[in-house]
Amino acid sequence: MSVYVDIEKRLGNFLLKVTLQGEEETIALLGASGCGKTMTLKCIAGIEKPDRGKILVDGVTLFDSEKGINLSPQERRAGYLFQNYALFPNMTVLQNLASAAKREKNKLRRKDRIEKTIEAFGLEDFLHRLPYTLSGGQQQRVALARILISQPDILLLDEPFSALDSHLRLAMEQQVRNVIRQFGKTVILVSHNRDEVYRMSDRVAILEDGSIAEYGDKDRIYQEPKSLAGAKMLGFENLIPVEMARTLGFRKSVPPEICALGFRAKDLVSDDAGTECCVKDRSDSPESTALLLQPLALNYANTLVWKLPRTCSYQVGDHVKIRIPEDCLLPLQDGSERGLL
User: Fold this and answer.
1) 294: closest CA among 310, 327, 326, 316?
2) Cβ-contact 207, 27 below 8 angstroms
3) pLDDT value at position 1?
4) pTM
């Protein structure tokens, strides 16, 4: 395998406990702020030291608590793209690039590598400028170029698009995807944006409270998450207790470890024989309308979200009857202790 991570690190009351492995592919760590995504990257890069565990990249042991191995960041050959890009502010673009090529002792090969990277990233017009004079997108290109010049064994991308304006993100995503294809090794991407993760990754790890709740092929996880953490991160607007689903007409049997059922807002349908609800709120967007529904005569605080075309006529205070198609309900595990239900 190209990457293997099995680590624990405690920070006060927070425990990071992550196990994952992958091949030459892009692995995304998806989760809310504070769930341990960036800390995982820092442990792989050697910026933070785990309390215990093991980290291997391309068969090389970077960290092993039992054997006392803990390579320095410089020895790990990990290309880390920080959120703020971490360019040297007092160096020109050319000097920033040259600083990453020091490992190459042959001057001609070093010069050739720098020149080819400048051409590949289209940096010819920026070479003598300082980082603060560049746009966010230009800084990111320089930072990626600097990383690749150092010839890393693994790429670690920490929310690479968070500092960019929204209109630049898609263009820079294309640039980064091209970089990843050319790199051809393992890439670990950190993000809290599910759409960005889907476009960029091959496999996805859902992190919650320092642990991986779910890990696997992105299409499987996006279509059918098996955990509450996964359903929340992937846009399942409706997460309800099994008992409430029974009251709403759900009849299928579920294993005892299933504590909730999830479905998307677009999956609700109008049905005269369905459950009567009151429209508590209406939220319009240019493409659609979301209705917040309160089921009547049910002893549950949970509301339901129903997404309809923008032209729908329902208003706050209206009564509607709805049904949840059983084949749209996903059984979900975990999370009840976190107060969702």
Assistant:
1) 316
2) no
3) 57
4) 0.87
How far, in Å, CA of 177 to CA of 181, rounded? 6
Of residues 37, 32, 42, 36, the one with CA closest to residue 12? 36
Beta-bridge mates of residue 201: none
Is a pLDDT exceeding 90 seen at residue 233?
Answer: yes
**Rounded average pLDDT over 311-315:** 94
Do the beta carbons of residue 233 and residue 317 sit within 8 Å?
Answer: no
Structure tokens given for 246: 């029974």
The DSSP letter of residue 108 is: H
Least confidently predicted of 14-18, 129-133, 243-247, 278-282: 243-247
Which pair of tokens denotes residue 338?
Answer: 């976190």
User: At residue 334, does pLDDT exceed 90?
Assistant: no
Domain ranges in the chain? Answer: 3-233, 238-338
Measured between its terminal Cα atoms, the distance across the chain in Å is: 39
Closest alpha carbon to 160 in 119, 131, 132, 199 = 199
Q: Is the dihedral of CA 247, 248, 253, 259 positive or negative?
A: negative
Whether residue 323 contacts residue 277, with contact meaning beta carbons closer than 8 Å, is answered with no
Residue 13's CB: how many other CB atoms inside 10 A? Answer: 5
pLDDT in tens, 32-65: 999 999 999 999 999 999 999 999 999 999 999 9
pLDDT, mean of residues 124-135: 94
Contact status, residue 333 vs residue 265, Cβ threshold 8 Å = no
Residue 202 burial (C-beta neighbours within 10 Å; 0-12, 13-18, 19+): middle
Q: Please give the CATH architecture assigned to the domain spanning 238-338.
A: Beta Barrel (2.40)
Lowest-confidence region among 45-49, 88-92, 120-124? 120-124
CATH superfamily of 3-233: P-loop containing nucleotide triphosphate hydrolases (3.40.50.300)
Closest CA to 240 of 166, 317, 305, 147: 305
**Span 80-91, mean pLDDT?**
91
Pinpoint the alpha helices (H) of the chain.
37-45, 73-76, 93-99, 107-121, 136-149, 166-183, 194-200, 218-223, 228-233, 242-247
Count of CA atoms in the C-beta half-sphere (13 A) of 289: 14
